[in-house]
Write a structure and sequence with these properties.
- The chain has 302 residues and is an alpha/beta fold.
- It is built from ten helices and 13 strands.
- The strands form three sheets. The protein has a nine-stranded mixed β-sheet, with helices on both faces.
- Helix 5 packs across helix 8.
- The protein is globular, with a radius of gyration of 20 Å.
- Bound molecules: 1-O-phosphono-alpha-D-glucopyranose.
Length: 302
């Protein structure tokens, strides 16, 4: 494989949020461990990171949220029991997360924002890492593989590359929104050059309908920018503001507009369709689910 496609060693996964939109489940279970069919969201992220060739998952956690890391550790008693009962398939599932990638915990003591969370991960990077990926575990970007496209674009245009979706105008206020222009790019992907970026603007102020969605390929220069920003939208240190600063400083930033689909695991309204989607695609549960869903839809007059 071409070297540049293996450039990312560390994937940063901010997972320190309180998961308030999932209460009461998140009183005791971090939202990153809620299952999509049978696999926690964090393991889907680990799979995607491993497929990218990354070897380290820098998981930013809150001090009382260590269970996310536990998911990657061996479980000797359970493994022995499963092995003695010949439950090979279940054993494979128990061991899978730990075999994908090495997790490293980075503690964020206070919820000071996404920019702050990402900045903390610099401490675990090796000196030779000049690029990192950030994957927000709330966002499932499907089909997977958008970061590979983003690496191709970085290889050609340099700098940082972000994943974008084109959303309806009245939804832009939920996101980091890009101010864009045409890129000098002839390749196969849908690429735009970013002139600036605004975090959660009002609908009138949104510079476009292209929004950031959970996958970032960031040049190491981001960490200097993160040190220079001050609290922005919501009083938090915003990754969006650090990216804007990079652009002001002359650093190239582009987006790859993803043409696939996306699930937002960060709230029940996005999580439920994700489970239905993955459930329908599941060879074991899919056929039955299709039948019962039809009946349920009819019952609800849909
Ligand atoms: C974060 C980012 C935002 C981005 C969004 C994607 O916001 O700050 O720029 O568009 O993720 O899901 P959050 O959803 O954490 O409020």
């Amino acid at each position: 494989m071409t070297d540049f496609l293996r450039a990312v060693k560390t994937v940063i996964v901010p997972a320190a949020g309180l998961g308030t939109r999932f209460l009461p489940a998140t009183k005791t279970v971090p939202k990153e461990l809620l299952p999509v069919v049978d696999t926690p969201g964090i393991e889907l992220i680990a799979q995607e990171a491993a497929a990218l060739g990354a070897t380290r998952l820098a998981i930013i956690t809150a001090p009382n949220k260590q269970e996310v890391l536990e998911h990657f550790k061996p479980c000797p008693e359970l493994e022995e029991t499963l092995a003695s009962r010949g439950k090979e398939e279940q054993l494979r599932k128990v061991r899978r997360a730990g075999s994908l990638i090495s997790p490293v915990a980075v503690e964020q003591e206070k919820p000071l924002g996404l920019g702050h969370a990402v900045g903390l991960a610099e401490a675990v990077l090796d000196e030779d890492e000049d690029v990192v990926a950030v994957m927000l575990p709330d966002d499932l970007v499907l089909p997977t593989g958008v970061l590979e496209k983003m690496l191709e674009v970085r290889n050609e245009l340099g700098g940082s590359v972000l994943c974008a979706f084109d959303v309806p105008e009245d939804e832009t206020y939920n996101y980091g929104v890009f101010d864009i222009e045409e890129a000098e790019y002839q390749g196969p992907h849908h690429v735009k050059k970013v002139r600036g970026m605004v975090e959660k603007p009002s609908v009138e102020d949104a510079p476009s309908t292209f929004v950031a969605t959970g996958r970032y390929l960031l040049d190491r220069a981001i960490f200097d920018a993160l040190r220079q920003i001050t609290p922005g939208a919501g009083g938090e240190l915003q990754l969006t503001d650090a990216i804007s600063l990079l652009i002001e400083q002359g650093h190239p930033v582009h987006i790859v507009v993803h043409e696939g689909k996306r699930h937002d695991l960060g709230n029940p309204g996005g999580y439920i369709p994700a489970v239905v989607d993955f459930g329908l695609a599941d060879p074991v549960y899919g056929p039955h689910l299709k039948k019962v869903l039809r009946a349920i839809l009819e019952e609800h007059g849909a």
